[in-house]
Amino acid sequence: MTRDSSPTRFLDDVTWNADGLVPAIAQDATTGAVLMLAWMNRESLALTLREQRAVYWSRSRGRLWRKGEESGHVQRLIDIRLDCDGDTLLLKVEQAGGIACHTGRPSCFYNEFRDGQWRPDSPDPTAGGTTS
């Protein structure tokens, strides 16, 4: 028996959820910092590999979302991995402008749990203030 060599067979190796989506973690390929979590569908994963830049599925907009299409903060694909269960993707990326979050921060994971509450670990770049 020969293995299916269809150019899209790799999509069948992914365990998609009931909505046809899979979580995708974006990680800075150089520093290892976790930048963000987004969602991909079959089309966005195929486009990401074809275009060598992150293309996600925006659940709120209900459409494909090329990261940086409005902000210019494109994520160039360096490497992509599928976890052991086949249900999560890891994209190692080069983050243009050093900003992954819509808040203007380098990472969407800027809230840390301290003293019983969530606190930002960096100032809000849009407010010009500082954090404690």
Keywords:
two-stranded antiparallel ribbon; four-stranded mixed β-sheet; globular; 132 residues; Ubiquitin-like (UB roll)
Describe this structure in words.
With 132 residues, the chain is mostly beta strands. The chain has helices at residues 9-12, 42-51; strands spanning 22-28, 34-40, 55-58, 63-66, 75-82, 89-95, 111-114, 117-120. A four-stranded mixed sheet has the order 2-1-6-5, with helices on one face. A two-stranded antiparallel sheet has the order 3-4. The longest helix has 10 residues, at 42-51. The radius of gyration is 17 Å and the shape is globular.
Number of strands: 8
> What CATH architecture of the domain at 16-99 would you give?
Roll
Protein structure class = mainly beta
- Beta percentage is 25-35%
Rg estimate, integer Å: 17 Å
Quick recap of the structure?
It is built from 2 helices and 8 strands; from the N terminus they run H-E-E-H-E-E-E-E-E-E.
Per-chain topology:
Layout (H helix, E strand, L loop, with lengths): L8 H4 L9 E7 L5 E7 L1 H10 L3 E4 L4 E4 L8 E8 L6 E7 L15 E4 L2 E4 L12
Parallel strand pairs: 1-6
Antiparallel strand pairs: 1-2, 3-4, 5-6, 7-8
